[in-house]
């Protein structure tokens, strides 16, 4: 009998693998025996991840905010190991523009990277998943999927969309053996949240708003991610799991 959390030999694509939670996810899954294609825009950082991660890994450089290339990216992601079984959509951007200052460019890059890229990559990779009768799509939502924060109107719009898109993906593809779920991290110290943690008072205020009393560490996502990637979650789809230390519970 296959262990519940075994992902040995499965092919995984992780976007945003060059840093932050995407890099943590890519390293975790490679260490668990999956064959991982790390996908990101910054080649030097991505190659550093590949060189320092044991296991079967490959890297693919692409700017996912360019919607015209997404189908080609999905095709290229399957070249190193074969059809992708698990897609982790971790890449993201937060321009932190106030509502009165949002620009066309800032809006477009945010919605393209945070919302359009996860969908069109999933749409393309779902073809192979359907062929195998099994697949996993794990999107990254956010506290801002449900909460409004200053300077977060375009980011919040994109992440609110991710939560609904995840439900719609589940409705569309779960009958083909493909589950779609989302992780919604709380405040984790990453490159994306650098401005938040640069202010110790603000960082502590966020920690104090959790039930647990601290901000998140990247490894806090390991268990939930393995659950969604493995057969342990066979009957779970269309769900968003908030990994936030109880921030949204208060």
Automatic annotation (TrEMBL):
Q: Which Pfam families match?
A: adh_short_C2
Q: What is its EC number?
A: 1.1.1.-
Mind listing the UniProt keywords for this protein, alphabetically?
A: Oxidoreductase
Q: Which domain of life is it from?
A: Bacteria
Claim: Oxidoreductase is one of the keywords in the record: yes
* Xref: InterPro entries: NAD(P)-bd_dom_sf, Sc_DH/Rdtase_CS, SDR_fam
Give one GO molecular function term. Answer: oxidoreductase activity
* Enzyme class per UniProt: oxidoreductase
What's this protein's family per the entry?
Answer: Belongs to the short-chain dehydrogenases/reductases (SDR) family.
Q: Which protein are we looking at? A: Gluconate 5-dehydrogenase
Say which species the protein is native to: Roseobacter fucihabitans
- As recorded in Swiss-Prot or TrEMBL, the protein's gene is named gno_1
